[in-house]
Amino acid sequence: MPLLAAETPQAPAGTARVVCLDGLRGVAACAVVVFHFFYAFTPGPFADKARTGFSLFDTPLAFFWNGHFAVAVFFVLSGFVLAASAPKSTREAPLMIGLRYLRLGVPALASSILAWAWLVSFPDAAREVQALTGSPWFRWTYQPPIPPLSQAIWEGAIGVFVEGTTRFNNPLWTMQAEFFGSLLIYGGYALLRGGARPLAMALGLVVFPALGLFYLAAFCGGALVYELRGRLRDHLWLGAALGLAGLVLGATYPGRAAGEDLASQFVASLGRDGPRQAGALLLLVAVLITPPLRRVLETAPLQRLGELSFPIYLVHVPLIVAPASAIFVSYAPVSASGLAMLFLGTCLATLALGQLFLIAVERPVLAGLKAIRRRARAWLAAS
C-alpha cells in the first residue's frame, strides 16, 4: 500500500529499473502519516466538507498532507508494477494471484496483530482524544471493549479482503482494493497479448469511472503508462506542466464548497474521485519524463523512504491511536509547540518501528515469495 504493498517497480529484463518511483512511493507514504496525525489531533480543516475562502489546502502543496491523493498515487503505481510483473501465461496466473494475496495478507496480518497489542495497551486513548478534538477519524478505530486477538487475526488475514475494512488498523482498507486491482491486471494480462493490453487498459479508464470504481481506473492508468513507456521522452517543461496539472487536479484537498457558477463547481470538484485519479496518473507521467524530478526522487534519503514505505503505511496508525493519543491526553490542552514535538516524536517512532517491520516481516516475506515463485515457475515449465 501496494506499490502500496511496497513492491519495487521492475522493468523488463535488460532495461533499467525505474528507481524514481520508489522515491515517489516514499513521499506518498509520508503524506499519509501527516494526514492521519493531523486529522486525529487538529481535525478542523480535514473534516470541513464545505470549505470556503482560500488556504494551502487549495494549492498543490496539499500533496504533502493529502492522504486521499497519496492513496490514488499508490494505486496508479501498483498498476504500473503489476503490469511489469504480469503472468507470462494463463497457467501462471493462479500462481501469481496467490502470491499476490500472500504479499498483501501476511504483512497486513502482522500489522493487525501489532495494532491489537497497541490498542489493548492504551484502550481508552483514542476515545479520550476524540472527546477532546471531536475528530471523526477515530470512528474507524475500535473503542473499548477491544475485540480479542482472534478477531485481529481474522480481520488482518481475511476480513479486510472480504469486507474492505477493519477498525484495528484502518489503512488496511486498501488491501481489498489492491487485491482486486491485482486480479484485474494479472487476469487481464494472462488473457490478453500485445496491443490488446493497452487497449483494454484504456477502456478501463473509461468504463470503471462510469461504474464508480475509480480505484480500478487508477490501476488501469498505471498499467497503460507501463505499456506506453517506450513512447515517453524526456521533456522538462511538458513534465513540469503535467506534474503541476496533476497536483492541481488531485492534490487539492477535497471538500471545497461549490457555488452556482461553473467555475466554482469545477474548483469544488478538485481532489475528488475522478480528478484525484487523473491527477495521480499525470503525476506518474511527469515523474517519468522530467529528469530533475527523477534525480530528486532517486536520492538516497527518498530511496530509503521508498524501501520503508509499506512498513510506514502499516505501522503509523497504531502508533497514532495508541501511544501518541495517550501522550496527547496526558498533556491536554496541547500547545502548537507541543503538538509539533508530538508530531516529530511520532514520525521518528514510525521510522524506527517501520525499520523493525522491514527486517522482521517485509524482507522475509519478499524472500520467501521469491523462492516460491522461482520453484513454481520451474515446475510449470517442466510439466
TrEMBL record:
Residues 20-353 form the Acyltransferase domain. This is Acyltransferase. Keywords: Acyltransferase, Membrane, Transferase, Transmembrane, Transmembrane helix. The keyword Disulfide bond does not apply. Coiled coil: none annotated. GO terms for molecular function: acyltransferase activity. The keyword Transmembrane helix applies. The chain crosses the membrane at residues 24-42, 62-86, 98-119, 199-224, 236-255, 275-293, 313-332, 338-361. InterPro entries: Acyl_transf_3_dom, Acyltransferase_3. Pfam families: Acyl_transf_3 (PF01757). The lineage of its organism: Bacteria, Pseudomonadati, Pseudomonadota, Alphaproteobacteria, Hyphomicrobiales. It comes from Ancylobacter koreensis.
